[in-house]
Write a structure and sequence with these properties.
Shape: elongated
Structural class: alpha+beta
Number of helices: 1
Number of strands: 3
Length: about 70
């Protein structure tokens, strides 16, 4: 997709002996001055802790909503 000029985001989980790892990879096309795709920039980032924090936030929000009487 990036070679076709589109941005792409992939999130994948990998199982390791030490636990699960969540990786986010972003691919973006690189254009020349004629607006032609001449390459792809790819950046990968470990978002394991961010994902855990988001899951904990969601869990706490559900508990709070439950206490407030929301479903």
């Amino acid at each position: 997709k990036a070679l076709a000029g589109e941005k792409l985001k992939i999130v994948e989980e990998r199982e390791l002996q030490s636990g699960n790892l969540t990786i986010e990879t972003r691919c973006e096309p690189i254009f020349n001055d004629k607006d032609e795709v001449i390459g792809v920039s790819t950046v990968s980032k470990d978002i394991t802790e961010l994902k855990k924090a988001q899951e904990e936030k969601d869990k706490l929000q559900k508990e709070l909503d439950k206490l407030k009487g929301k479903k």
